Amino acid sequence: MNASKRTSKPGTRGAVLRTRGGLSLRLDVRGMVVGALLIALALVMSVVLIGTGDYPIAPVDVVRTLFGDGTMAQDFIVNDLRLPRVLVGLLVGASLGLAGAIVQSISRNPLGSPDVLGLGQGSAAGALTVIVLVQGSPAEVAAGALGGGLLTGLGVYALAWRRGVQGYRLVLVGIGASAMLTAVNGYLLTKADVVDATRAVVWIAGSLNARDWNQVWPLLSVCVVLLPVVFSHARGLRMLEMGDDSAYALGVRVQRTRMVLMGSAVLLTAAATAAAGPVAFVALVAPQLARRLTRSAGPNLLPSAWMGAGLLITADWASQRAFGADQLPVGALTGMLGGAYLLWLLVTERKAGRI
C-alpha cells in the first residue's frame, strides 16, 4: 500500500492512512502502543519464569539457551522442563483472554465471561467424570474436559435461544448452568475414592505444574485454527456491540456471526481448561483491563489475548515466588485476585447504574 496521506480527523482516535486509490486504514496508535507493551510484558515475564526454580538461571543465560548457546544442563532445564510450561501458560492465558473478550462483546455485559457462563465448570465436570468413573489417563481427562466444555456451551446457547440469543438471557442461563455444574462436581468428588479424589482436587485447582509438550501442541493447534476464524468476524463482533438492529442495518448476519464466535469462544475455553484445568477469572479480567488501557471501544481482541497471556504468566511466577515453599496452583492465585476484582467491578457497575 502506497500511503499518500496521513491524517487524524477531529473526533476520531488514531491516525488514518489514505491511498491514492481511495483506500483508507485507521490506525489506533494508543492501542498499538498498549499491545506492544503487553507483548513485551508477556515475553519478559516468560524469560523470568523460565529462570525461576530450584536451579535458577539468569535471564541472559535463558535467552542464550533459547537461541541454542547454553550448556547441556541449561538446555535440558530450559527447553525440556520449563519452556513447555511457559508456552502452555501463554497459550492458556491468551485463549482465555480472547474468549472473554468475545463473550463480553456478544453479551454486551462486563460480567459475561466464560467463567460466569459455566464453561469452566462444564469442562471440570467432564474431567471429573473421566477421573472418578473410568479412572482415565491424563489424555482421556483432557478429552473429557474438552467434551464437557463443548456440551456446556451447546446447552447454554440452546437454553438461551428464543428466536435468537440476547446477551442478558445468555448470562442468566449461564449463571444457572454454572451453579448446577458446581453441584454435579461436588457430587462426583463425594463418589470418588481417596486416590481419585486427590487427583481430581489437584486438577480442578488449575495448575501449570508438570505441563509438557503434550499439552502445548494440541492447544497450539486449536489456536492456529480458531484465530483466523475469530479475527475474520471481528468487524461483525464490533457491530453486534451496537445492538442487533444496528448490526442488521449494517449488513451483519447477526445470528450466524454470533453462533460462530460463541462456538470459537467455547472451543478456546474448553481447550485451555483441558490443558491447565480451570483457571478462574482470567477471561473476566483480561478484556476489562485491556479496554481500560487502550481506551478504545470494541472488543479489543488482540490486547485482551496478550493481557491474558501476561496475567497468567505473571500469576504463575508470583505463585512460585510469593509463598515460599508453599507454592500455590496458579488457579488458586487467579481465583483470589479475580474475586477481589469482581467485587470492585460489581460496586463500580452498581454506582454507574448499569446493574
TrEMBL record:
Pfam families, sorted: FecCD
Transmembrane feature ranges: 27-50, 86-104, 116-135, 141-160, 167-189, 216-234, 260-286, 328-347
Subcellular location: Cell membrane
Keywords, sorted A to Z: Cell membrane, Membrane, Transmembrane, Transmembrane helix, Transport
Membrane-related topology note: Multi-pass membrane protein
CDD domains, A to Z: TM_ABC_iron-siderophores_like
Entry's family note: Belongs to the binding-protein-dependent transport system permease family. FecCD subfamily.
Protein name, as recorded: Iron chelate uptake ABC transporter family permease subunit
UniProt lineage: Bacteria, Bacillati, Actinomycetota, Actinomycetes, Kitasatosporales
